[in-house]
Structures are given as C-alpha cells and as structure tokens.
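User: AB hydrolase-1 domain-containing protein, Postia placenta MAD-698-R-SB12:
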Amino acid sequence: MDLIRSFFSADYWKPNLHFAESPASLSVKSFPGSTETSQENLQEFIEARCPSLFKQFCPTWWLFNGHLQTAYAVVGDFSKIDKVEYDRTFLRTLDGGTIGLDSTPPAAVRNLEDDAPIVVVLHGLTGGSHESYVRAILAPVCTPVEEGGLGYRGIVVNFRGCAGVPLSSPQLYSAGHTDDIRVAVLHIAKRYPNARLIGIGFSLGANVLTRYLAEEGTRSRLIAGCAVACPWDLVMNAEQLENRWFHRNVYSKAMARNLQTLVRRHAASLYKFPEHPLTQVLPEVLSVKSLALSQFDKAVTRVGGGSSPPFPFPTAWDYYVWASSHKVLADIRVPFLAINAEDDPIVQVLPVEAGGNPFVAFAVTKKGGHLGWFETDEKTGYVRRWLKKPVVEWLKAVREDLIVEGRQDMSTHVVDGFLKEVGRDDIGCKEVGKGGHVVGVEGEGGLLAGL
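Assistant: Predicted structure for AB hydrolase-1 domain-containing protein:
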C-alpha cells in the first residue's frame, strides 16, 4: 500500500539529486549583468537556476518503462521538430584522421559575435549532428534571444566516419579515446578565443566528455560539462548485455549492427591500408550476419578504437576496463551535471557518489530509458522531451552567472601547419576544408537513430 501511495505521489516522480557532502564553492554574479560577485556552492547554484530538476518528470503513459522510452527514441519521427542546420568544417589529425565539426547557426542564416558562448556537443555511438536528441538541445539554445532562445553557437563534433565524415586513416573512435575531442576543442578555442565553451555529451559521447574533463582537470578549455545517459561502467553494461537474452538480442545486436554498417560503409577506405590489423579483420566482421556488441568490440574496437598506445588491447574486456568513466569522475575540476534514468536498459551502474567530487551533481529520474525522457505536453497533448528543460537551464546558468576561476592558461603554436598545444607534440589538427551545408533532420540512412 505504501508503494502504491508513493507511486501516485508527486515526489515519487521528482529526480533524485546527489551532491558531495561539501559541494564546490563557486563564484557567481550577484545578479544578472552585475560586476559584483558572491559565493554559492554547487547545490545552491543548481537549486536557484535549474528548477526543472526539482519538479516531477512523469513519462507519457504509453511509454511507461525504459524499454518503450528507448524504443521511441529510435523509431519516433522527429523530422518535423527541432530543425537545425549547420556549416561543416573538416579537421585533419596528425595520424591522418578526419573529424567533422558542424556549426550552427550557419553563416548564411545568422552571424554571431565571436564571443557568443559555444555548446560543444558529442553524439552517441553511431550518431552525429542529425540526431534528434542533439537537435532537441541545440534548437532552443541556438535560437536568437529575441525569439525566446539563448542565442548561443552550437558545434557538434562528429566522430571519425560518423554522419558523413570520411574515414581517412585506419583508426576509428571509441568510448575511451579523448584525443579527437581534445584537438577539436583546441581548434574551437583558437577560432573563438573570447567565447565560453560548454561541453555536453550523449551516451558514448558523454563517456568521452567525462574522461576528457577528468584528464584535463584545471586545464580544461570547457568551463563546464553535462553528461546525458553516460554508460559509466562499460564492464557491467557488457555483462548485462551478454547475459540477458532480451538485452543481447535487441540492444547488443542493434548497436553492433549499427557499427557493422558504419564499418561497411568505409570498407573501401580501410582497404587502402592493407597491412593494418583493423583492415585484416574486416572480411570476418563484415561476413557475420548477427554480431553482439562485445563481438564487434573484440574484433574491431579493441584494435582500432584509438591511437597506440594504449590500443590495441588484448581483449574487449580490457578495453572496457580502460574506457569506463565511473572511476575517473573524482578528477573533474569544472562544474559538471550528470543526468541518467533508473530504468535505462543499457546503463547498469549509476555512480551517484562520484568519488566524493564536489564539482559533480548527479540527477537520476525514475523513468526515461536511454536518451528518451518523453513526456506529454499538457497544453498541446504532444510528446516532447523533458530533458531539454534542465539542460537548457544548466547551459544558461553556467554561461550567464558562473565566474570562471582557477583555469590554467595553455599556449598553442602551429608546427608544420598543425595547431598544437605547447609542450604536447603528439596531437594536433589543421582545417582541411569545408563540408558544405548540413541539414540536421536528414539522418544517416541505414543506421538506427537514437543510439
């Protein structure tokens, strides 16, 4: 009876917020536009500026569990909402790889000042700037202020081979490899030196963002981060995907099929490197009709999911241990908001304690699935994503009220045409051309969206 009462209670549907025992002290503006400052801890900062995190999220009645929420994120038609268009730029990395940066609003639509804040977005497993969850955030964030938006710039970092980005080296991407986002942020910061950069990652991209912020510490060029549906402990997730019949045959194989399709699409490019171990496993990988995710990671990701070292790994499980982000949460040194759902069928562990890190706030909803969070708009009756409300509030708060302190200033220089950070010569990038105009609602055919 008590369980039934709690289910119908408004408090039951409110997200659970987790903070360190002593949340980090932040310098903030005393009031909007003020030059005076005051001190607030992270919990006070969020309580004052992110009201959606303290109100109920009640899922649409016919999407009442994590499986249905996740399924709707994959099969739902979002082509007529949150339309976003981009200008594409290609970056070349030192190893010959290519990263695609999609920037919105396009220059032909609206020019922003160079100091306009920038939301740097990392997509999910085989996604890109076309994904509905990406557009759900960028549409309100990048809409002009006079039209009710925040007026920010959005830049999506499309991983190697994703969203139409060419594969120009025998290296892919993975949940643990951070050098591509590192050089992308380096390029963005150099291009817009007066802009605040705020990171947000979804699913696999959230894992990459978390690891990047942890590795950078006080050197991070991103002043804050937001991780949405981060997978955290890849070992535990893989075990559940392997050991449950439904999870193995639905989620694991769906993700592996997407990755297999992505590799097949770039097979001709990979065959230009016949001696590379990744190329040598292609015939076997592409010939199998039904792969599990761990089988794909065993054959491909552990070999070509990043630079050497640490790649290749002896097994997929060694890669999972290395790439997991839950164990590095304690090292983040910028304000960081994580949002997960309890009923996410893909994510098994939620490290809400965050290693006691005072810079981390962890919000957990009862429902929402993986990259879902669909609710019914009481005014229109249409299904909408609840997620955009707290995320937009967070992005607005860290841009408008947070005073950035304690950041280390890192110098850069150009060596042989590549932009590098002084003191680190192993990574760098250079712009190698434009990719034209990209319409965000035009998804990548042949791949399941929403993952």
